[in-house]
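Q: Two folds, back to back.
A: First:
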Amino acid sequence: MTSRAHSLRCVWGGLGVAVASLALLGCSGGHDEDLAQWMAQQRASVRPKVLDIQPPAAYQPQPYEGASGPTPFSEERLIRMLRSDAASGALSRLIESEMRRHREPLEDFPLDAIAMVGLLDMGGRRVALVRANGLLYQVATGHYLGQNYGRVTAISDHHITLREVVQDAAGEWVERTATLQLQEGTGQ
């Protein structure tokens, strides 16, 4: 291809771009005014509907009557409920005797949070050492541990045996045996 042919081709290409640009400019003139006029008419003809707002209901304060009753988390409320169940025959004698006695400090901890860490012989009587919440306690036969009314029935060299009172799947109170194993090497 020669340089003259190349020059003619560039001229015709440039001319084509110029004609296309003029055609596009010719198409865009005048329509903007029609569109703007139509939009103004539409805005003027449409009126928004404003719904009336209903006034709020007047506040009627109610007196608080719960102050005279027991708190929802008190033992008194639980005991009252259990006594009403006992009156209706739903509460067994197992739990009745447990509810009447004074609770011991180790009953505040679940059994899995208590560890047997040692054993003492105090004048022929076995006493187990248990750790709960970082403190050591002495436990003898007849003491209570855990949150299921666990009464210590036996203390051996390697474990503590407990009798617990729990509810079964039917809601009946039953006894079960639990053990607390000696935790060797827990010198914390």
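A: Second:
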Amino acid sequence: MGTLTRSGDELAGGALAGTLRVGGVDAVALEARAARLAGRSIKRESKDAGLELAVRCIDLTTLEGADTPGKVRAMCMRALRPDPEDASVPPVAAVCVYPSMVTHAAAHLDGTGVRVASVAGAFPSGQADLDQRLEEIRGAVADGADEIDIVINRGALLSGRLDIVHDEVAAAKRACGDAHLKTILETGELGSYDAIRLASMVAMAAGSDVIKTSTGKLPVAATPPTALCMAEAIRDYHRHTGRVVGLKLAGGIRTSKQALGYLAIVAETLGVHWLHPERLRFGASTLLNDVVLQMRFRRTGRYPRPGDLPVD
């Protein structure tokens, strides 16, 4: 995968089979386009399809200190049957838990098609010895995790030590074995769209299967301009290398309206082939209920009360 360096607007590395231009980001144009796409009016048929797609792309998440095996079991049951009153509502993509809860989630989801995702590698700070982070990743995979969400080394990135960032992500990818690696950029800490684009490129060059916006533990998380910035990086990386990388949007996404706006951004930037759980995820704990409520309303003409659905 090689060592990466940045010189001017170029990012060079063995993983790129040449040189990939990182370039700068026009913040004004990016924000204007993101606002236009996220606010686009969606026709009824497209909205129905979008709501169903949003469900199928959700990583239903619980990352709390008070998590218990019972709570994880209930979340797994909810992941399999999002609407207790309507079996036609599809299951979510995955359930995301701490490493200590992986065995419980795996036991309930085995053979269902819903994947087990786990944060690992000293989530959410990433501030631990690399060997300890890698051991946690290997342990989560051994316990049954299909996907691993790690955090990028923001300190190394912001101080220009791109070789460290690249090599740590590459090591995490190797530690995952057959599990998919999602790399969290924690965009709220990076300070600029230029830094977000650079972090995206380094993570992809190091072998990450998915790049993800946020841990959800900071006030600033996913935003439409951030999603667009990362989607454009994925598009440009794919054009240069031919490799497909997924996008996970996480942190602060609570309503179906927000989710539909992000689907519009992804569709217009990456194309309809990215509108699939293999390439797009929403990391959320509360989004599912709002989407299910909207689906019930569109099916029955009645808007149900939020209390009619389980509280995760």
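Q: And?
A: Confidence is low (pLDDT under 50) at residues 1-10, 12-19.
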